[in-house]
């Protein structure tokens, strides 16, 4: 081992406050002068700033395998150490190492270790202090609803309300009651009411949701406070699952919905993600731009398929511009103003600002899977405002996973720069840097894919309508999976800093998860066609990833939010760990406001997937810097002055800020503009460029004051900043708290059909669920190995008389293994309810059902009980705490109206403005089918066909009818699928296979060819066509189709087996053996190929190997009955008659009526 110095030889101080020290390494020794002992001391010295290390993160961003020596590997590792500081508050050290590894007999060992770069920071006192509990914890609604994360609610609410929960719910700030303090509005998923928290001005917030009329239960992604009617108070716009909602403020804190506010030309084609307001036509009223996103889950309703191609997807949903007509109506004008150009992407966020200072607000749109849009507002063209997408010519197309958009003036030159949130991913950087990544793609295309992994982007406005990408030289790229990325000046030094809320899917510490980061880049992104092409491995990879994520997958987990401090010299330094804002909680959005009016920026963070969903961080930085806050009121301009540009010039600096309404992602910051002014002694001049075109200049504004300015007026109102009077004690009291959580089972909004079953209880009596139709039933699952479930069974037995009197039948199903019947029998002594042992299919079916009743996709926990109504539908689910008394009381509720079902299915009162969505049975049926539970899967898909009679639904019905031996029904379903979609290659191929099985060779050949017409590179259809031709004596033609199938899929077991059959017919046993062997290697339990290989081995004189092969096969696949017959004959041929008889006996145990088995056994018994 040889190591270099880990500590720098010299450093440059980039901080300007003794309370926040920042040092960047300037000179680092590169020589490998340290042995193992000396290097160990260097590692110890690396930690000398810390009292304790709380985070140690190491991310490998590059792996380079030497071409001449695969046992030696070079890696680049990003390290981040943070924790409590010695003699201070917090400290952090970040940088990169180069490490060389050598493979040794005991594994990989580091042989060389050097430092590339390094940054260290230290805070002597708290910078940000969490005050969530103190500020919000006195509200019961906060404790009961927002302390539990959405992962909790996803296992306690009907999945109808939380389909595919991504946690895309934001937070907005605005002064709804005009008392001078910004309040909070929190968006929530369906079934949980959004919450309005009023800032009381004493450091606390009170829930006034119900009083304000804003307890909306519709799934809401974002809210926007704005005075849309210019009447002097803040109205509220909500972006929900079904569209936009406008609530008008009556000026007294009460909101009323205007049901006729929004007029679209056509229904929205995607889910609304973010919105942003501006007065694009300068008529004095705020207009609304909406971003839409076509989520791809891999289900029947995914019409457009996955984003394609991955690097530059153009199959997204169109965004919409709605013009405020000044009379209470928002009317769509998207195409009329030119915003239909390049309007086919996966848009997450938008922000308005006049970047070229021509007086007209421009629009920046951040798009996932590709390029951004920068729509330049050209002003009036041919009598109408017109936009043109200039992203390419302006230099800001910025390929990436765009999630966030913001304008800022990071270099204080007075021009608005651009900051977009993308994806920084170590796994992506590793994979895309490998020589084998997309080797056939052009070099510039591979570079675009690498750009997708680089991270956030910072573009400097050059003042001539173009931007320069300064991301890397500024050190602004790091943000991880960057949802909301935006700018604010946390230390009031006059330079805007960058903050990023990040993280995707983190599983809890006690919850096993499968990390899909590397899988996603290797199996999804790497498989993406360079041009749009449906039906590829890329589509399959997306489906696999999404299904993992809704079950036990994790992606971009345990990412910590990033705070990049602007050093005032064009660069940024990461200080999130030192500042106390490196929150590990899958953040989605944040808003900046001065909630306590002490003159610095506080942060409200929305990280809804875990606990608590909402967190407030008070800015306690004592840097001694001056500031001023300016609040604008428009008169000729829109009353909120959205779009105004304010420049404050002091004796030391010149700082520009803009008023926005929606930026970052799912976020709305305060409309009060907070200017950090560093060590300024006086404000020389303040210039306001109003949206109307008016420019006003003021002199002599007081430092460290709040200032109110009205458009056109020379009169100012001012008041000094408040002195902080809230406790500075650390506040983590809400983290993981379970206070007041409701736990009495889950009423389903949409009753779910209970899968039927017929089982014998331990007394030999038969029970079926359908046999109890007409009365409610409790289906209770338990096991002897789960003692709490046994205790609940005992309680139910004690209360049986009471439950029976309520009209309830009880069926208790043990999920113990079938071999443990005696153990179950022993465990139920004294139990007075029917107890039966569930078969694997019954237990498995109810396990799948449980996964689809709740969005958490959890397996069946024990104990669990299902309350089934008289119609055979599950209406309530009980888990963990199950009380017989509560069940008895619930029996009366098994008959309820849809309205009653909805009311009781939500845990808190509120209002739905549109009915909740329908339950999807498609994925439920698909998983049942994949698990081999064909009968319940068929029931599920028959239900799907009633509400979604699509081609894919009938295709799945057809395959299930085939499996269940119903060829006529299968043919009808597949033909229906092809009527709905004549180009459906899978349906043509499957129908061809069905016809071939039933002797219609001509029809089979026609459908295989039809499948290939629709999808020429369809390996399954090529193989099936070849096999059918082979069966009709056209072996040479068949071999050509086999060859093409194997070119497409070299590891295709069925095609390999068919080629083996072809060579076997030609008596070329050597090649036949080779292909059969490959087929078995690819799929060890492939019975037909193993059987064929055994026959060839025997024919070539190796009966011992043939017998061993079949014995191994039957251990792995005992259901493959032809192998028993072949094995019997091989034993007979080798003189082992006893073993031959035993093989037949094993066959007849599985199938007592097997004709060939019975015949062979009789021959052997007769001595033949």
SSE layout and pairing:
Blueprint: E1 2-3, E2 10-13, E3 20-27, H1 36-46, E4 50-66, E5 69-85, E6 90-104, E7 107-123, E8 128-130, H2 132-136, H3 140-146, H4 150-153, E9 171-174, E10 183-186, E11 195-199, E12 205-207, H5 209-212, E13 220-226, E14 235-240, E15 244-249, E16 255-257, E17 262-263, E18 271-278, E19 287-293, E20 320-324, E21 330-332, E22 346-353, E23 362-368, E24 373-381, E25 384-389, H6 391-394, E26 404-408, E27 417-421, H7 426-433, H8 443-454, E28 457-461, E29 467-469, H9 471-474, E30 482-488, E31 497-502, E32 514-515, H10 517-525, H11 537-549, E33 553-554, E34 562-566, E35 572-574, H12 576-579, E36 589-593, E37 602-606, E38 614-619, E39 626-633, E40 645-650, E41 654-658, E42 667-668, E43 673-678, E44 683-689, E45 695-698, E46 705-710, E47 716-720, E48 746-753, E49 758-760, E50 766-768, E51 777-782, H13 787-798, H14 800-805, E52 809-814, H15 821-827, E53 835-837, H16 840-853, E54 864-868, E55 873-879, H17 884-890, H18 898-905, H19 922-930, H20 934-947, H21 951-963, H22 967-980, H23 985-997, H24 1001-1014, H25 1019-1031, ...
Parallel strand pairs: 1-7, 9-42, 17-21, 32-33, 39-46, 51-52, 52-53
Antiparallel strand pairs: 2-3, 3-7, 4-5, 5-6, 6-7, 8-38, 9-10, 10-11, 11-12, 13-14, 14-15, 15-16, 18-19, 19-20, 20-21, 22-23, 23-24, 24-25, 26-27, 27-28, 28-29, 30-31, 31-34, 34-35, 36-37, 37-38, 39-43, 40-41, 40-44, 44-45, 46-47, 48-55, 49-50, 51-54, 54-55
Helix pairs in contact: 7-8, 7-10, 10-11, 16-19, 19-20, 20-21, 21-22, 21-23, 22-23, 23-24, 23-25, 24-25, 25-26, 25-27, 26-27, 27-28, 27-29, 28-29, 29-30, 29-31, 30-31, 31-32, 32-33
């Amino acid at each position: 081992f040889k190591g270099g110095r880990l500590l720098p030889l010299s450093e440059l101080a980039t901080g300007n406050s003794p309370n926040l020290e920042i040092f960047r390494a300037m000179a680092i020794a590169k020589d490998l002068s340290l042995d193992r002992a000396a290097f160990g001391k260097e590692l110890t010295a690396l930690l000398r700033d810390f009292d304790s290390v709380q985070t140690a993160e190491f991310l490998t961003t590059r792996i380079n395998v030497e071409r001449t020596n695969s046992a030696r590997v070079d890696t680049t590792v990003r390290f981040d150490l943070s924790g409590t500081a010695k003699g201070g508050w917090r400290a952090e050290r970040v940088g990169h190492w180069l490490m060389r590894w050598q493979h040794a007999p005991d594994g990989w060992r580091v042989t060389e270790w050097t430092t590339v770069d390094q940054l260290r920071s230290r805070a002597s006192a708290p910078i940000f202090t969490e005050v969530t509990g103190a500020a919000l914890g006195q509200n019961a609604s906060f404790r009961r609803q927002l302390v539990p994360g959405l992962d909790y609610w996803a296992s306690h609410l009907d999945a109808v309300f939380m389909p595919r929960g991504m946690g895309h719910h934001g937070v907005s700030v605005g002064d709804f009651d005009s008392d001078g303090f910004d309040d909070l509005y929190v968006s929530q998923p369906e079934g949980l009411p959004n919450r309005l928290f009023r800032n009381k001005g004493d450091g606390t917030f009170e829930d006034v949701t119900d009083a304000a009329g804003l307890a909306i239960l519709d799934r809401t992604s974002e809210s926007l406070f704005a005075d849309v009617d210019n009447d002097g108070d803040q109205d509220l716009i909500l972006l929900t699952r079904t569209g936009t909602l406008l609530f008008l403020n009556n000026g007294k804190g009460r909101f009323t919905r205007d049901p006729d506010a929004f007029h679209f030309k056509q229904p929205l084609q995607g889910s609304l993600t973010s919105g942003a307001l501006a007065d694009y036509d300068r008529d004095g009223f705020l207009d609304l731009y909406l971003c839409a996103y076509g989520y791809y889950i891999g289900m029947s309703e995914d019409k457009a398929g996955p984003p394609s191609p991955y690097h530059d997807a153009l199959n997204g949903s169109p965004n919409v511009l709605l013009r405020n007509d000044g009379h209470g109506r928002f009317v769509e004008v998207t195409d009329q103003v030119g915003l239909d150009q390049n309007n086919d992407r996966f848009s997450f966020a938008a922000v308005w600002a006049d970047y070229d200072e021509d007086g007209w607000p421009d629009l920046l749109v951040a798009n996932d899977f590709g390029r951004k849009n920068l729509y330049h507002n050209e002003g009036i063209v041919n009598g109408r405002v017109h936009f043109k997408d200039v992203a390419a010519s302006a230099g800001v197309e910025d390929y990436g996973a765009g999630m966030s958009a913001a304008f800022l003036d990071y270099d204080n030159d007075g021009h608005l720069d651009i900051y977009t949130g993308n994806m920084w991913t170590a796994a992506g950087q590793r994979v895309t840097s490998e020589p084998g990544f997309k080797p056939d793609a052009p070099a510039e295309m591979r570079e675009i894919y690498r750009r997708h992994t680089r991270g956030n982007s910072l573009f400097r406005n050059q003042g001539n309508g173009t931007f320069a990408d300064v991301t890397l030289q500024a050190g602004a790229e790091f943000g991880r999976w960057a949802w909301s990325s935006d700018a604010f000046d946390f230390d009031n030094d006059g330079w805007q800093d960058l903050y990023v809320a990040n993280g995707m899917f983190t599983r809890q510490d006690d919850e096993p998860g499968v990390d899909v980061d590397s899988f996603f880049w290797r199996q999804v992104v790497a498989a993406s066609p360079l041009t749009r092409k449906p039906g590829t491995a890329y589509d399959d990879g997306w489906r696999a990833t999404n299904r993992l994520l809704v079950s036990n997958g994790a992606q971009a987990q345990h990412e910590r939010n990033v705070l990049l401090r602007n050093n005032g010299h064009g660069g940024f330094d990461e200080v999130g760990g030192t500042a106390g804002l490196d929150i590990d909680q899958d953040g989605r959005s944040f808003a900046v406001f001065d909630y306590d009016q002490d003159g610095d920026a506080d942060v409200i963070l929305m990280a809804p997937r875990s606990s608590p969903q909402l967190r407030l961080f008070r800015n306690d930085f004592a840097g001694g810097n001056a500031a001023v806050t300016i609040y604008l009121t428009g008169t000729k301009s829109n009353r909120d002055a959205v779009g105004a540009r304010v420049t404050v010039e002091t004796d030391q600096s010149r700082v520009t800020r803009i008023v926005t309404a929606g930026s970052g992602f799912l976020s709305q910051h305060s409309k009060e503009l907070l200017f950090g002014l560093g060590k300024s002694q006086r404000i020389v001049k303040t210039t306001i460029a109003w949206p109307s075109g008016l420019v006003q200049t003021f002199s002599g504004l007081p430092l460290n004051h709040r200032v109110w300015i009205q458009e056109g007026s020379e009169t100012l109102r001012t008041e000094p900043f408040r002195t902080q009077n809230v406790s500075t004690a650390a506040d983590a009291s809400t983290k993981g708290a379970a206070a007041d959580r409701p736990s009495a089972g889950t009423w389903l909004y949409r009753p779910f059909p209970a899968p039927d079953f017929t089982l014998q209880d331990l007394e030999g009596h038969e029970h079926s669920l359908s046999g109890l139709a007409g009365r409610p039933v409790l289906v209770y699952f338990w096991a002897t190995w789960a003692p709490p479930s046994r205790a609940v069974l005992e309680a139910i037995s004690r209360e049986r008389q009471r439950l029976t009197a309520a009209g309830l039948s009880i069926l208790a199903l043990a999920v113990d293994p079938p071999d443990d019947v005696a153990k179950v029998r022993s465990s139920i002594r004294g139990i007075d309810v029917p107890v039966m042992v569930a078969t694997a299919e019954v237990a498995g079916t109810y396990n799948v059902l449980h996964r689809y009743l709740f969005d958490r996709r959890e397996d069946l926990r024990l104990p669990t009980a299902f309350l089934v109504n008289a119609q055979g539908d599950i209406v309530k689910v009980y888990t963990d705490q199950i009380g017989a008394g509560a069940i008895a009381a619930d029996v009366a509720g098994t008959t309820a109206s849809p309205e009653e079902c909805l009311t009781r299915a939500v845990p808190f009162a509120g209002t739905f403005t549109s009915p909740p969505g329908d339950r999807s049975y498609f994925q439920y049926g698909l998983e049942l089918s994949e698990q081999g539970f064909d009968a319940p899967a068929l029931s599920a898909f028959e239900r799907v066909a009633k509400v979604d009679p699509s081609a894919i639904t009938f295709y799945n019905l057809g395959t299930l009818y085939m499996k269940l031996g119903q060829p006529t029904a299968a043919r009808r379903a597949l033909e229906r699928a092809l009527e709905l979609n004549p180009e459906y290659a899978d349906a043509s191929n499957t129908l061809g296979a069905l016809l071939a099985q039933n002797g219609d060779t001509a029809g089979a050949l026609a459908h295989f060819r039809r499948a290939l017409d629709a999808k020429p590179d369809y390996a399954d259809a090529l193989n099936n066509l070849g096999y059918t031709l082979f069966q009709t004596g056209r072996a040479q033609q068949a071999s050509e189709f086999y060859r093409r199938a194997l070119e497409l899929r070299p590891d295709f077991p069925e095609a390999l087996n068919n080629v083996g059959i072809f060579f076997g017919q030609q008596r070329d046993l050597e090649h036949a053996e080779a292909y059969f062997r490959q087929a078995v290697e690819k799929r060890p339990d492939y019975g037909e190929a193993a059987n064929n290989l055994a026959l060839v081995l025997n024919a070539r004189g190796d009966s011992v190997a043939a017998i061993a092969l079949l014995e191994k096969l039957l251990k792995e696949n005992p259901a493959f009955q032809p192998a028993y017959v072949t094995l019997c004959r091989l034993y007979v041929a080798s003189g082992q008659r006893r073993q031959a008889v035993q093989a037949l006996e094993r066959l007849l145990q599985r199938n007592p009526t097997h004709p060939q088995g019975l015949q062979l056994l009789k021959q052997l018994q007769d001595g033949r």
